[in-house]
Design a protein that fits this description.
This protein is an alpha+beta fold. It has 17 helices and eleven strands. β8 and β9 form a beta hairpin.
Length: about 375
């Protein structure tokens, strides 16, 4: 089993702290051409992060190698020797001749090709802050950022478009945008719509409401291309209120709604605990008896009905037990996932917020299946 360097996972609430950190990391980041010999030393020194190893395995055409290298053995050096032998192969040498190892603080964090256009995180942050007045016609305020490995996500909320959920002055929704980039080619430059619920401090990314806008790290004028995508996201911010209120208007009816979500394969397996194979009833699965079929179905229905209690936090429990408002809505059910997200590591949290947006879009697109 390989020993890996820890992956940086940092959250920023202050934009000046983000600027300072990215500038420091820029001085420690470099791209190493034809890295075959360098990689041998990196392997020997355990100087690569999990993302760096995954990128290396993918680059040399062996994506399944990562899991094999992380299996514990009685001979700890076996994984190193095996990986070195692959890196020394003629096939790997040919591939690596046109690649760059992305190094940060003398650790391998990724691999990129010769066409990759570096766009350092500090330049991305400075471009956003320097041009905010030009792209900011919606009253955006910095709402936080995360960096995982080198993947950067910045969030801005719009005070101009903030609204009370169906007139409830205590339940405010702040639409905004989430901007993403990476120095290792594993994330395109992108602008996504995003919402923040002040009642429970949850965030949720809204994908495909109009379109997900991406700019790949190839060619010149990357930020100019990104500005166009940001403008596109801005122009449709007003539609977020309609989407959220549509979800809020759909009643969540115990047993009935959950049965329809199951029957129509809704993408609700958002939390890590919900992804175990065979955990939920599936109409296509063959069961030994009709009783097994119905028991598994009913258990799955009950589980979905109780997700806000079992996995959500304080606000989700208040919504579901009727202590905040009398009716249950699909919006509150989806929001229980994003409230749960606050208890997970940053990378998992971000993924849950993205998947909750996918679920909300699925519900909106399949509303007739839930209501009928």
């Amino acid at each position: 089993m390989l020993t890996l360097a820890p992956t940086e996972q940092i959250q920023f609430k202050d934009i000046n702290a983000l600027v300072s950190y990215t500038e420091d990391m820029a001085r420690k980041t470099y791209y190493w051409a034809k890295p075959q010999q360098t990689l041998i030393k990196i392997i020997s020194d355990n100087s690569m992060t999990e993302k760096g190893l995954q990128a290396l395995c993918n680059t040399i055409g062996c994506p399944s190698l990562f899991k094999a290298l992380m299996v514990e053995t009685n001979y700890p050096e076996a994984s190193k020797e095996y990986l070195r032998s692959i890196i020394f192969s003629k096939q790997a040498e040919k591939i690596l001749d046109s690649k760059f190892a992305v190094m940060q603080d003398d650790k391998l964090i990724g691999m990129v090709g010769s066409r990759y256009k570096p766009y350092p995180n500090n330049k991305f942050v400075n471009d956003i802050t320097d041009n905010l007045s030009q792209i900011n016609s919606e009253g955006f305020k910095f709402h936080g950022a995360t960096i995982i490995n080198s993947k950067l996500s910045m969030k801005f909320a719009s005070e101009k478009h903030t609204f009370d959920l169906k007139g409830d002055v205590n339940d405010k929704i702040m639409p905004g945008i989430a901007l993403k980039t990476s120095q290792t080619g594993d994330t395109a430059l992108s602008s996504e719509q995003w919402v923040f619920r002040t009642l429970c401090t949850n965030g949720m990314k809204i994908k495909d409401l109009v379109s997900q806008n991406m700019v790949y790290h190839v060619g010149d004028n990357l930020f100019d291309k990104l500005k166009n995508q940001i403008s596109s996201s801005n122009s449709s911010l007003h539609s977020i209120q309609e989407r959220i209120e549509d979800l809020f208007d759909i009643d969540y009816i115990q047993s009935s709604t959950s049965a329809k979500l199951l029957a129509n394969n809704a993408p609700f397996k958002i939390l890590p605990e919900l992804r175990k194979r065979g955990q939920f009833w599936n109409s296509k699965k063959k069961y030994k008896t009709s009783k097994d079929y119905e028991d598994h179905r009913q258990n799955s229905i009950n589980y979905l009905d109780n997700i806000p209690i079992k996995h959500g936090g304080k606000v989700s429990a208040q919504m579901w037990l009727g202590t905040y408002r009398k009716r249950k809505s699909m919006f509150d059910w989806v929001e229980s996932f994003t409230e749960a997200a606050q208890t997970y590591p940053l990378e998992v949290k971000n993924k849950i917020e993205e998947d909750a947006g996918i679920l909300s879009n699925w519900i909106a697109d399949n509303k007739y299946k839930i209501l009928n």
